[in-house]
Amino acid sequence: MKTHRIAAIPGDGIGVPVTDAALAVAAASGAQLEVTRFDWSCETYLATGAMMPADGIETLRGFDAIFLGAVGWPARVPDSVSLHGLLLPIRKTFAQYASVRPHRLLPGVEGPLRTSGFDILCVRENTEGEYSGAGGRVHVGTPDEVAVETAIFTRAGVERILRFGFEQARRRQGRLASVTKSNAQKHTMVFWDEMTEAIAAEYSDVEVTRIHIDAMCARMVMAPESLDVVVASNLFGDILTDLGAAIQGGLGFAASANINPERSAPSMFEPVHGSAPDIAHLGIASPIAAIWSAAMMLEHLGEAEAAARIMAALEATTTRGIGVTPGKDRTDTITKAVLTAL
Ligand code: IPM
Ligand code: MN
Fold first, then answer.
1. Architecture category of domain 1-97+261-342 in CATH
2. Whole-model pTM above 0.85?
3. Using one digit for the tens of pLDDT, what is the confidence trace for 250-272?
4. Domain 112-247 CATH superfamily
5. β-bridge partners, 177
6. Which residues line ligand 1 (CB under 6 A)?
7. Relative to the CA of 72, which ligand 1 atom is closest?
8. Which residue ranges make up each domain of the chain?
9. Please, which pLDDT band fits residue 1 given cuts at 50, 70 and 90?
10. How far apart are CA 149 and CA 164, in angstroms?
11. DSSP of 39-61, one letter per residue?
């Protein structure tokens, strides 16, 4: 049996306990894992002036996968510093261009909607678009100040994320919703639409719809069961996946994978939620999103059976009513219940 080498970056706040929980469950799932922990965090920044060592990226490159808890402690380090010093460079340098985020209700979890029958897979572009980081400010602090942030959509970048979306749709219910805003953004989003149409020609088995981001927000609330795979740019996908988290019961249930589909570098798995400094020391962070993310990691590593066992254990836990109400059960209680179910 293959041993998978995992780099664990628990990070800040609740990232630490949920990473412990996820790795404990992963270790009990039947897969062979060798975990190396890196304590890179805002503490590291305050002590050394950098979120990770200068050779941090090269260190991570040697692993089969990365598991990340959460990054950020805005009271002491600005988010723009902590995220651009750790999470975002990993996603970009390792070409983890497909952010995959499943949105469905675990059994026993009551979301805010009247319907429970939805199963959405959001595929978010993760390396360019509106979050490329291209831009700048001039005349800072004067009345003439100008701030520019340029969205960058490359043919290669758009094509690869759309293809990834089509492939996911093909493996699921065969429906793809491509999120756009070409009625207002006449360069980037018209290009996005043209690329969607061109690639659709190769996937005649996939039913494609084009939907503007504003209408998609309404659709995810009013008729989420009408959606299968949703593919979106970095900004649109970021926003939609918080909406997806909300309809599945909250951020404590939202898992994610940052995938490098070509496997030219490790992929990274992390819950969608952040470090939640306000509840970090209360012991009540839900480990469910992190555990679900660990299942996605094992799936990516070819351990489909271990991943399925974890998902079954999570579902058995929520079916018993454990972990279904945010803030009610302690992190340890939920983790123990999942381990027992395993
Ligand atoms: C997410 C987060 C990050 C993002 C932030 C923390 C930079 O909101 O993973 O969705 O926007 O990608
Ligand atoms: Mn987000």
1. 3-Layer(aba) Sandwich (3.40)
2. yes
3. 999 999 999 999 999 999 999 99
4. Isopropylmalate Dehydrogenase (3.40.718.10)
5. 209, 230
6. 83, 238, 272
7. 6
8. 1-97+261-342, 112-247
9. confident
10. 27
11. --SHHHHHHHSSSS-TTHHHHHH
* 145 vs 140: CA distance, rounded Å: 5
Q: Which residues pair with 221 in a beta bridge?
A: none
Distance spanning both ends of the chain, measured CA to CA: 20
Residue 159's pLDDT band (cuts 50, 70, 90): very high
Ligand 1: nearest atom to the Cα of 242: 10
What order of strands is seen across the sheet that includes strand 175-180?
A: 32-37, 3-11, 65-70, 267-271, 255-259, 98-104, 119-125, 229-232, 175-180, 207-212
Cα gap 32→295, rounded to integer Å: 13
DSSP code at position 21:
H
What token pair was written down for 291?
């555990």
Tell me, in angstroms, the distance from the centre of ligand 1 to residue 30's CA.
Answer: 31
Phi first, then psi: what are they for 82, rounded to 5°?
-65, -40
Strand partners, 332: none
Residues 137-155 have a mean pLDDT of 98
Q: What are phi and psi of 21, to 5 degrees?
A: -65, -45
Mutation choice for ligand 1 from 238, 242, 269, CB with most ligand atoms inside 8 A: 238
Q: What is the pLDDT of residue 338?
A: 98
Closest CA to 274 of 304, 292, 250: 250
Coil, strand or helix at 116: coil
SS3 content of the chain, % helix, strand, coil (to 5): 40, 25, 35
